[in-house]
Design goal:
Largest sheet of chain A: 7 strands, parallel
Strand content of chain A: 15-25%
Structural class of chain B: alpha/beta
Mean pLDDT of chain A: 90
Distance between the termini of chain A: 6 Å
Oligomer: heterodimer
CATH topology of the largest domain in chain A: Rossmann fold
Helix content of chain A: 25-40%
Number of domains of chain B: 2
Number of domains of chain A: 2
Strand order of the largest sheet of chain A: 3-2-1-4-5-6-7
Distance between the termini of chain B: 49 Å
Low-confidence stretches of chain B: none
Shape of chain A: globular
CATH class of the largest domain in chain B: Alpha Beta
Helix content of chain B: 25-40%
Largest sheet of chain B: 6 strands, mixed
Number of strands of chain B: 10
CATH architecture of the largest domain in chain B: 3-Layer(aba) Sandwich
Mean pLDDT of chain B: 87
């Protein structure tokens, strides 16, 4: 039996621009490989066109035999002609595709993030939120297996999943990371970020970082943030930060370069004010940092609370001050989090090798 | 030789130089054609009028505050200022730590000579290495590479760029240094490489995972675009995305920059 991972973002296999859904697709493909004869990624042509319409000279999409694009008009032919397979959907936006698949094939519905909460916190229209909830219910109704990202999301979706408990599996988000080439680089600087989404607010944290870098010129930091215009509330804090001589600002990096930067980081920090969505969020930035062996400073009270067993770094409920940030970096420099990082690596390996995720589907 | 100095005479004295020209703004534009060098003491005081001159004659920027670096980056990013192998950056010792935030500054620091010697160089002599085929071209021609290439949005992220020794500074013309990570200096894997035709093969071998190639070259009867394309793709696959004609040169030649997607 074959398995098709339905992508709405490019996996690292074919692109250097990678977002959380692409990393999740790669993780699911990795977990599915022992159970199926063949595992492929599939993307609809409309989605592919949307992702490659940016006005850049180079899109950097590579061809790979495991990645296929199917024209939306021919999806039903495609589904009828292939042998019975399993399709994994990591997003709610394709309920029609999912229903077409469910007629002949097995369906795995993967809940990576609480989409409706994202829309609510992002100020979406009520009709859009209601539509997403309806898609979620339709996807659940046709699924043969439901995967949920972490225990907090299991709690959140508990009511929806109550009648289907037997087919629900906890599968925390654990992006794969490539093996490092050559000797491990020296960890020299810290890395932190501005707000990732329009519903995340990092302003207070960025102010604390500016205070910390001003007071401690020995700390050198990479700050990954796109240029923000003056109407953006974060722009005031960012304009202060970019004047610091011990700060290097880059707007964003390709996936391999980003991982390489994390591999050189002595500590990684990302803190934003808690809102309804943040309570269940699992920060991709922090999960990647831990996978690359860097201790993290993040929020307490998010979906990461129940990751890794013990938190590989520090988590703060209130806005970290310049002193708490500096103390955390000093502890990281003294390798005080090495034990928890090792435990996190073991936990990661256990999740990636978990056979219950796809057992019984093939 | 005429040097324009942006700053006060006292500041000029601190650098050990004697500016020849101290003109009011009205006369400034009229005198531009005679200017052979320019020194900006504190780039934060430069305005739009100055860039017309800065982008055409060899210029030195004296960094007197971290805010100067911010302003340089802002003007680079805004496409008003282009730095070339003819330009120099003088970092006052008190601000040497600015190098971490802007590692490209180091490329423009003239390590071998001081500012007074720099000001005595012949106007068309580049201060930093240039590919042999671009030798003899003045700054006002080579700066057109940056004018053309900085308009391009090659990828939607900041490139990590590796360069051949001859293109170390010229790379800032093909990929804006304000939005570029320096692969060698920052210890990052290279997304892109910038190399003249003779160094392409060696650079691709040294950075096998790079995905983009910038190749500034002088195209002419001896090296046509077709021949250059064959050279570049002879041993490893690469796809020509754009061939940018930068400027016409005498003898049926043209200054151009080829952009390749590798793999």
């Amino acid at each position: 039996m074959d398995c098709y991972i339905v992508c709405n973002m490019f996996p690292p296999l074919v692109s250097d621009i990678v977002h959380a859904p692409g990393l999740r697709a790669e993780q699911l493909a990795h977990q599915a490989r022992p159970h199926f004869d063949r595992v492929c990624y599939v993307m609809t042509k409309s989605r592919y066109d949307m992702l490659t319409r940016a006005p850049t000279a180079v899109h950097g999409i590579r061809s790979h035999p495991d990645f296929m694009v199917v024209h939306d008009s021919y999806l039903h032919f495609f589904l009828d002609r292939i042998e019975r397979s399993a399709f994994v959907f990591s997003q709610v936006e394709m309920p029609n595709f999912l229903e077409m698949v469910a007629r002949r094939h097995a369906v795995v519905y993967d809940i990576l993030a609480p989409k409706a909460l994202e829309l609510i916190c992002g100020g979406a229209k009520p009709a859009e939120i209601a539509r997403t909830e309806e898609w979620h219910k339709r996807s659940l109704a046709f699924a043969d297996r439901v995967l949920v990202n972490g225990e907090k999301n299991l709690e959140l979706f508990g009511y929806d999943l109550a009648s289907r408990v037997d087919m629900v599996v906890n599968n925390p988000f654990c992006p794969l990371v490539p093996e490092a080439e050559g000797p491990a680089p020296e960890r020299r600087h810290v890395v932190f970020f501005s707000g990732a989404q329009k519903w995340t607010n990092n302003i207070a944290f960025l102010g604390a970082m500016a205070d910390c870098l001003e007071a401690r010129p020995d700390i050198r930091a990479y700050f990954l943030s796109p240029l923000k215009n003056h109407e953006n509330p974060e722009s005031v804090a960012i304009s202060r930060l970019v004047q610091m001589p011990n700060l290097r600002r880059l707007s964003g990096l390709s996936y391999p370069t980003h991982l390489s930067l994390l591999r050189q980081a002595v500590a990684v920090m990302d803190w934003s004010e808690i809102n309804e969505e943040r309570r269940y969020s699992t920060s991709t930035r922090l999960i990647q940092a831990v996978a690359m062996g860097a201790p993290i400073l993040g929020n307490a009270g998010t979906g990461l609370d129940k990751y890794w067993g013990e938190y590989p770094g520090e988590s703060a409920e209130t806005v970290p001050t310049a002193e708490t940030v500096a103390t955390f970096i000093d502890r990281a420099r003294k390798s005080e989090f090495d034990d928890t990082l090792k435990a996190a690596a073991s936990w990661r390996a256990m999740v990636l090798e978990d056979e219950t995720i796809f057992r019984g589907i093939a | 030789m005429t040097i324009v100095f942006l700053g006060t005479p006292e500041q000029a004295e601190t650098l050990g130089i004697a500016p020849d020209l101290a003109v009011p703004p009205v006369a400034f534009a009229q005198s531009m054609r005679y200017v052979t060098r320019m020194v900006a003491f504190g780039p934060r005081f430069m305005n739009d009028r100055d860039f017309e001159l800065v982008n055409r004659v060899p210029a030195a920027f004296v960094i007197t505050s971290p805010v100067d670096v911010m302003h340089l980056e802002m003007h680079l990013r805004g496409g008003r200022l282009f730095l070339t192998p003819w330009d120099a950056v003088v970092l006052e010792p008190a601000h040497a730590d600015c190098r971490f935030g802007a590692p490209w500054l180091d490329l423009f620091v003239p390590h071998a000579i001081g500012l007074p010697e720099f000001l005595q160089l012949p106007p068309d002599a580049p201060l930093h290495p240039l590919p042999t085929e671009l030798g003899g071209l003045p700054k006002r021609v080579v700066v057109k590479i940056a004018e053309q290439m900085h308009r391009q949005r090659v990828v939607p992220y900041d490139l990590s760029l590796a360069t051949s020794p001859a293109c170390k500074v010229l790379a800032g013309s093909v990929s804006n240094f304000a939005n570029t990570a320096l692969a060698e200096a920052e210890g990052l894997p290279a997304d892109a490489i910038c190399a003249e035709p003779a160094a392409v093969e060696a650079m691709r071998a040294a950075h096998p995972k790079s995905r983009i190639l910038f190749c500034p070259a002088v195209i002419g009867p001896n090296l046509t675009v077709e021949l250059l394309h064959q050279q570049i793709t002879a041993t490893r696959p690469a796809h020509l995305v754009q061939s940018v004609l930068v400027d016409r040169l005498p003898g049926g030649r043209a200054l151009s920059c080829l952009l390749y997607a590798i793999g």
